[in-house]
Amino acid sequence: MSSALPPRTRSAAAEGLTQAAQAGHFALQVCTDCHSVQYPPRDVCGQCLHDELQWQVVDNRGLVVASTTLHHSNEAYFQDHLPWRIGTVQLACGPVVIAHLKDNLQTGDPTELRLELDAANVGVLVAHAPTIQQG
Predict the structure, then answer these.
(1) What are the DSSP calls for the chain, one per residue?
(2) Any idea which of 9-18, 55-64, 122-131 has the lowest mean pLDDT?
């Protein structure tokens, strides 16, 4: 197994993903003016251009709208872990995100996203099959 790590390069705004993952929360930026949930992390609101975005816990439920399996990568870390499943997820709270897919999720499946720390200790979005609530 290679000692390669996933790419660490992220924007300063994306540091909030790592902090939320470390705290065990699913948090994204929310505009303090129009209240739209932001992804990817940014410096100004993608809806109204307001520059005050706060990290807040948001609804992590979504729907896989596209899924694929990578069989090739130029990144050494991913080369050692192929095939790698990724997909596009429409979150109930608004944004569409790209996430690592777990639990054999396919296009059309409901999902719950988590912020997890990857091998480089960076927060990444991971889609899992929904947990079943007993009650």
Answers:
(1) -----------STTHHHHHHHHHT--EEEEETTT--EESS--SS-TTT--S-EEEEE---EEEEEEEEEE---SSHHHHTT-SEEEEEEEETTS-EEEEEE-TT--TT-EEEEEEEE-TTS-EEEEEEPPPPPP-
(2) 9-18
